[in-house]
Amino acid sequence: MTTQTQILRSKARKRAKTADKVATVVIIVFALSIVAILLGLIGFIMFRGLGHISWHFLTSNPQTIREGGGIGPPLFNSLYLLVLTMIITIPLGLGGGIYMSEYAKPGKITSFIRLVVEVLSSFPSIVIGLFGLLVFVNTFEMGFSLLAGALALTIFNLPLMVRITEQAFSGVPREQKEAGLALGLSKWKIITSIMLPVAIPSLVTGTILAAGRVFGEAAALLFTSGMTTPPLNFSDWNPLHPRSPLNPLRPAETLATHIWKVNSEGLAPDAIQIAAGASAVLVIMVLLFNLFARWGGRTLYRYMTASKRMN
């Protein structure tokens, strides 16, 4: 009986090892497939577009029917729109995340707020664009403008920022909060002096990743910031001047919408080359955002860890 039991156990161990090997191989194949798809997509875009990138291409104005156009204004509009969006998104996202993590009490209201955040994060960007068209462009009479686009992208990006902030503050060790309470510190003092320095690396990483999403968005901007850019006077940086690059109430064609417009209209003889070069620039910018997010998060984490050890 003992010998038969040992044989059965041996067979069971062999089956378990075989299943473990099969599962490991399947997981590795899936992981390598994802990497291959990503590298193939990036390689294809770079192969088609890198040869068309030059200083003239990055700084010159687009051309509608003539060849030789560049992406200077759309590239500037994308960066400026990114700044406007994050100026609005970061305070709202930090406030909402801190409230959900530290002030909101468990209950139906808190659960409803979390449900609203989750539903908002799953909205298609085209729907947010239509909402921005109806509310910001038409109702508030902002017209097609950078400000309307920034507000629409804030709605698009706010759920991500709230979740990142909530998770960053929830990840702070409970002992540190209790130590602050034992010292008689107020709740706001604990948040700003104890929890915020610990959460900063995660907040910075999440903020940069959210900024990368904003930089590559197109659908919501088609209905809010517009698909044209007026002639800009880069010697006049007065934000109140209609032709100033910093005027937030002017229409602005971003890099992503410019790619869509060039591919859909295709009036210029070199439209395919322009779209390929612009796509490569957009992919490079998104990759730089992601790499900078990882590097910045790790650097801040090491700095915070070293500061704790010194103290």
Automatic annotation (TrEMBL):
Matching CDD domains: TM_PBP2 (cd06261)
Membrane topology label: Multi-pass membrane protein
Family affiliation: Belongs to the binding-protein-dependent transport system permease family. CysTW subfamily.
UniProt-listed SUPFAM superfamilies: MetI-like
Subcellular location: Cell membrane
Transmembrane segments: 21-47, 79-100, 112-136, 142-160, 194-215, 271-293
Domain called ABC transmembrane type-1: residue spans: 75-293
Keywords: Cell membrane, Membrane, Transmembrane, Transmembrane helix, Transport
Full protein name: Phosphate transport system permease protein PstA
Keyword Transferase appears in the UniProt entry: no
Organism: Paenibacillus wenxiniae
Keyword tRNA processing (UniProt): no
